[in-house]
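input
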Amino acid sequence: MPQELERYIEAATRSNTRRSYQAAIEHFEVVWGGFLPTTSDTVARYLAEHAGKLSANTLKTRLAAIAQWHLSQGFPDPTKAPIVRKVLKGIRVLHPRPEKQAHPLQLQELELCVQRLEHVALTAHQAGDVPSRRRALRDRALILMGFWRAFRSDELCRLQVDHIEVAPGRGMTIYLPWSKTDRENLGQTFHAPALARLCPVQAYQDWIAELGEQQGPVFRRIDRWGYIQGEPLHPNSVIPILRAALSQCGIPAERYSSHSLRRGFATWATRSGWDQKTLMSYVGWRDPKSALRYVDPAGSLPGQFAIT
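output
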């Protein structure tokens, strides 16, 4: 395959998906000892041997990786055979597992996080502690933007300074060249609100003033000496950042992940009176089931905040 053609095909697949598929193929070939190309009977046996050890969703990802390998190499897809589908269905019946979901970040918890980060930033500024001040400013902006815009961790880490326009007192416009729900990679524009409290716009402006850049990644690594690096944060960094902020507030953080921001916003919006159509449009969901999965029916209703 010509190098230029391969480069465009690779660009069409999300980096997270590529890593997941590579790990799945490695497990099939190296760990389990399978051979590619393979047959439907072998795939069915692979599934049966991992039933009960891996969740049905994980096995579906493994199947998708095997299918993608065969199709990209010009071989028939063995995962579409009836025997493979029946085995997967049988695994769901005999090994049911409840879907694990991140705990939604409630507004009260968000407020505690932000207050703590603001205190750290102020104290660090007074003490001349540049690394702590910069991390607090960055983390406050990341958490507030992640919550109020319901961004995924990879979307937060792909935000670019030159793709964001701020209208002080009104809000900001954020452009993402591609996202998970943007199947055609046409790009999407999002609007974030300016709020009286817990404002993502003000937090972003404070961080950008510290960053001092007019282009490049918004959220970047900060080394131990406080130097801001040129490369963006890795998506896997969002979970420890959120958990560290929660832990500093005395909140048990193990049940939270980067999806807690997205689920927290969906729960807040639903209990604040948003209808499903408005929520789906704001977040970018196309499937109503996706919206329902993210809403926590046990969430509280904080009435003192409004998005304008």
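quick obs: Residues 107-127 form the longest helix (21 residues).
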